[in-house]
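Need a sequence for this fold. Nothing fancy.
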């Protein structure tokens, strides 16, 4: 297995991301950088995910789910994808098929939009 700088970066990325989320706490009164929220004035389907991930990294599962209910699903997908990548680069598994990836992304998108609509209707979207 030949590792490139890109492979090393991808292998290190989850650890660097987790470290960043553990050190820095996103706040609700910080500046909005979401293009959707800036243009529409409402939270997007993924709004709250960074705060949820930061809260989850610190061990507060209920707080994380309050920020965004799908954070455990997204985290699980990221972990499985990362492990799959590492195993693939080691030659232990075949690359995931396009159909599998497409279905996973489509189901995730439907889940994100469904949760967003439910939160929009109930008025529980995070502040923008």
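Here you go.
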């Amino acid at each position: 297995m030949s590792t490139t700088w890109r492979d090393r970066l991808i292998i290190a990325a989850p650890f660097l991301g987790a470290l960043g989320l553990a050190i820095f706490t996103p706040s609700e009164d910080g500046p909005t950088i979401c293009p959707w929220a800036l243009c529409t004035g409402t939270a997007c389907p993924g709004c709250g995910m960074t705060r949820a991930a930061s809260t989850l990294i610190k061990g507060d599962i209920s707080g994380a789910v309050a920020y965004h209910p799908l954070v455990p699903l997204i985290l699980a997908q990221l972990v499985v994808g990362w492990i799959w990548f590492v195993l693939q680069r080691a030659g232990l598994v075949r690359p995931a098929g396009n159909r599998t990836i497409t279905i996973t992304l489509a189901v995730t998108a439907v889940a994100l939009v469904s949760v967003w609509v439910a939160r929009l209707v109930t008025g529980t979207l995070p502040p923008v």
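For context: The two ends are 46 Å apart (CA to CA).
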